[in-house]
Design a protein that fits this description.
heterodimer; A: alpha/beta; Rossmann fold; 5-stranded parallel beta sheet; 8 helices; 5 strands; B: mainly alpha; 0% strand
Chain lengths: 186, 305
């Protein structure tokens, strides 16, 4: 994976900040707070944020609950399919430090070791106000060109890859693709 | 002589640019009005322009071959050619004696281009979306062709300029009152061609995650959004020209096209999505029967009221 150069200017950063498209990949129970954030009372579309069903079109991945190694595989695959620049918000106590699953053998405690997270939201559950505050903070970071998680991932790919391999075993990407072989026709 | 050519080229480029911006603004109006219907605040009117700028600025575009790349280009090219056929505000850029028929066929090209590109992407959701889209188009063809024939028989011409000239004078000369059946049918078919509810079966976001568009992102999607907005404007302008007395001056252009677009937006927000076989049997029953009535009326009564 080579290093990619991103064009930046005031207009481009403003457009990026004002049009964050969320991919609706809701892990755990946190996804239940997203419909109130999207609908009439809080309405995140006034910031240009919409949720898109397609990974290729999305800019922002919300991780909204506890992360098991099995889910983390999918999260990493989804994150790598998204196009740069891309951002991650970890939403709720569970992604921060596994929350009430702090002594579980099958929950990822330090999400930051496997994928780069831009903004964390604490709380169980975070209210829609907290989600909006995180989104506005991410918008500010994007506008100033400071949301560089995707760049960290590219530059330190070997580090992240080592950690992922230690958790899932070597060649886990190949094994995951083999499982999806049935659906791919080209 | 050369000056005329330069002026014509400038007018063409300016008109295309204006219509592209207007298409994106129309999509902004659609999002804003939908939000107000849902009692939300909604994004600003220029939101689709920001979306297109953002999509152009994405890096790392992945491609699935030449056909995949050509799909959005065919869509945008078809929409621009259709836009140049329209006599807007006294400008007749590509007008000729049979432009109504050509326009009607070019209106279908954007959706077909997207389907062509999507079929090359190899994604199962794209395949399902393309399959649904082609079935929907087959369903729309019969009433569409009958309604176009009814309009042609009503005016006894296939030139858009002459159609506009025939509607001048009184408001009762408008195509809407001369042949209401054809006007209704073209409005319904327009919803199917523009891929909006209740006919957004090909790109059902909740079931098959955008259907044909699922593999498209970045610059491809920016082209597609532009083409879709332009198609929206072209349809609204075509409807105003054929049924609402033409768009001779800027004020009537804006008022009539926004009126047509608002009607589509209200219908879009009120009616839920049909299943594919419901849409197909609906299209071959009621719009086809209405279009046949319109054709009979046009042939029996001619151009008379």
């Amino acid at each position: 994976m080579g290093f990619q150069v991103l064009e930046t200017s005031k207009l481009l950063n403003y457009a990026r900040a004002r049009s964050l498209w969320i991919v609706t990949f809701c892990t755990g129970c946190g996804g239940v707070e997203l419909p109130p954030t999207a609908t009439a009372r809080f309405d995140f579309e006034r910031f240009g944020i919409i949720s898109t069903p397609s990974i290729r079109q999305a800019d922002l991945l919300l991780i909204t609950g506890y992360v098991t190694p099995k889910t983390l595989k999918r999260i990493i695959i989804v994150y790598e399919m998204m196009r740069n620049p891309k951002y991650i918000i970890a939403h709720g106590s569970c992604p921060v430090n596994a929350g009430i699953y702090w002594d579980s053998y099958n929950t990822v405690k330090k999400l930051d070791l496997y994928i780069p997270v831009d903004v964390w939201i604490a709380g169980c559950m975070p209210r829609p106000e907290a989600i909006l505050r995180a989104l506005v903070k991410l918008m500010k970071m994007v506008k100033e060109g400071k949301a560089l998680g995707w760049k960290r991932y590219l530059e330190n790919f070997e580090f992240y890859r080592k950690k992922q391999d230690r958790l899932f075993g070597k060649d886990w990407r190949k094994r995951e693709i083999e499982k999806l072989r049935f659906y791919i026709h080209d | 002589m050369t000056l005329d050519v330069i002026v014509e080229i400038l007018a063409t480029v300016g008109m295309v640019f204006l219509l592209l911006i207007l298409g994106l603004i129309f999509m902004g109006i659609a999002r804003k009005v939908s939000a107000r219907i849902h009692r939300r605040i909604g994004p600003p009117l220029y939101q689709p322009i920001l979306d297109v700028i953002k999509l152009w600025s994405k890096i790392d575009p992945s491609s699935h071959g030449l056909t995949f790349d050509l799909g959005p280009l065919i869509a945008l090219g078809g929409a621009i050619t259709a836009a140049l056929l329209l006599p807007i505000m006294g400008l007749k850029l590509l007008s000729f004696s049979g432009d109504f028929i050509v326009l009607m066929y070019l209106m279908e090209l954007p959706a077909l281009g997207i389907m062509l590109g999507a079929a090359a992407s190899g994604n199962p959701f794209s395949a399902v979306g393309v399959y649904r889209g082609l079935i929907l188009f087959t369903g729309a063809q019969l009433p569409y062709a009958l309604a176009v024939m009814a309009v042609a028989a009503e005016y006894k011409t296939l030139s858009l300029t002459e159609i506009v000239a025939l509607q001048q004078g009184s408001i009762l000369n408008w195509g809407l009152f001369r042949n209401p059946f054809a006007a209704l049918v073209i409005a319904i078919i327009g919803l199917a061609l523009l891929d909006v509810q209740p006919f957004d079966i090909p790109s059902a976001p909740a079931e098959i995650s955008m259907g044909p568009m699922v593999e498209y992102g970045g610059k491809h999607l920016a082209l597609m959004l532009t083409a879709h907005g332009l198609e929206f404007v072209v349809f609204a302008t075509m409807y105003s020209i054929v049924f609402l007395g033409g768009v001779g001056d800027p004020i009537s252009f804006i008022v009539k096209t926004v009126f047509v677009a608002l009607l589509a937006i209200f219908i879009m927000n009120v009616y839920p999505r049909w299943r594919i076989e419901q849409a197909f049997s609906y299209l071959w029953k009621y719009p086809a029967a209405l279009a046949l009535l319109g054709l009979v009326k046009a042939v029996m009564l001619g151009g008379a009221m």
